[in-house]
């Protein structure tokens, strides 16, 4: 636009704008909140080439219409089911959805020509008032070439002759006609139309003799002014759908390549298409009019080096929410699990389920991952958000100002409080995530089975496709949900376990490593049991001279526990392992031992037992100490429990691992050790909460 001044914005603040409308997609990424107009112009600040993102004038960069068909129901058997067509189209769709300044529409398994044609026309017409720079049509499914026409085959199509072919299938010529009639001729500026067709080009009778078929470009009256086409195979040839193990067709795999594909930062759209045509082996793709694609257009711009602002200064931290209590050594680093998570973050997948038994360190792994990922220049996202599934409303109350502060800068946001409705909170959070599409990784921690997620109103309408989502859960069912990558987290490996013990129990020398590994074996290398055992062994008041001392005490406790009749129904190895229960019992006995050794007062020991009982029925994290009692009086009990690794205390709030809570609630003998019953505990908790509400 020669008449429009080149303008920039920072976090929604307009420095100067002519009379045109503004689309801020992609602009926020270039500069952080502290930037000013003077700093953007130079001075002592380093602004590298490609770092500044010019405003787009009220429209998307690329809009994609992605169609995948694989559930064919051909009566004649001519069109068999495909493995990867819908997955390919879905991945292309999600890639465009995440890319800043882009959008997409996804149609899976359209029944017939009418349905496919009608949806395409609706989308084209909706774009007339705000047309994209590029309209991309991606198709994966069966295809037929008849004469000089290539036809796309809907799910229920089963043509036997040319008449039925034209009635039941949609030709590429008609696709181009619709593009011209419904958008090209109606738009107020140029649009480039790109068709990417991943389909066979055999005849109605299955013939594959190339000489029978000739592709001719659409006539000038039937085509848009600017168009380009790539077909994944040559005339008369079949296109590979890829194997189930590969997950994508060869053509889609090239387009989705993490380093050189459509959505790799800095990859030019024209180069990607040309590379796909060049590197397809055995199918000889056909291209037309690729010169019409802007040679400098990238779907995903190179991530601006905004973490490298002032020359000589350290890079600023990523924008993080819900991670105030993050400690990099909360659990031993799980490099074997972090590596596949980083590969996922650098690829095209949007959702990953981190699942495993409680106490294996899923939450800590997720925290460690999003902090590292959002601070890494290898990952595009720079906003990390940690949400607790059981406390979504509480988290949303502070997430709203966090998100709207990023978007609006100093203008901030409208106030939120306890009177804000769930619907308003949810809508504002989801709107913020949509505005910041492509910038965030959200962890939803300790999620129940998938069917419970759909009943949680705070997640209704969650914009899954606008960023990346990590779900941590004990439910393996999440790993079977469509589009979710799976990562199972289990017990420590020997190297991880040994590193944890060495880090936590400093007075054990390396000469005791053999005994340490016996201790690891005794505890089943279970992360929570091992970390809490180390906390006990490292305690100033309970120092085990060597691992064998703890092992002996552990065996005694295990034999005693084995004699008890456990009445908790449904509790077994799938809930928590025996080694964890033995460790927990031993930790409680060590708290009581302080009284016998006269290293703690009776009030502190009893106070510690009462705290454990009450905490087992409250939220696992962020419980204000003042609602549990007098903070000064509880200082001693909290210190005793922290020494055993049973609780953590931060920002005047107490937290307890959900697995410890569960064991205390469900194991009758633990409640007996704590000196009370479930009924009395619930009355105590209710009484304290009532006093807290009344302002006591």
Structure explained in plain terms:
The chain is of the alpha/beta class and 696 residues long. Helix 14 (513-522) runs parallel beside helix 16 (547-562). 36% of the residues lie in helices and 13% in strands. It has a six-stranded mixed β-sheet with strand order 4-3-5-9-10-11, with helices on both faces. A six-stranded parallel β-sheet has the order 12-14-15-16-13-17, with helices on both faces. 43% of the residues are buried. The protein starts with 8 loop residues before the first strand and ends with a helix.
Outline of the structure:
The protein is built from 22 helices and 20 strands.
Topology:
Elements: E1 9-10, E2 13-14, H1 37-41, E3 62-68, H2 85-98, E4 102-108, H3 113-126, E5 134-140, E6 143-146, E7 149-152, H4 162-168, E8 170-171, H5 172-184, E9 192-198, E10 226-231, H6 250-255, H7 269-279, E11 286-288, E12 319-321, H8 335-346, E13 351-355, H9 362-375, E14 383-388, H10 392-408, H11 422-435, E15 440-447, H12 450-453, E16 468-473, E17 484-488, H13 494-504, H14 513-522, H15 527-538, H16 547-562, H17 578-596, H18 602-615, E18 623-624, H19 635-643, E19 648-650, E20 653-655, H20 658-666, H21 668-673, H22 678-693
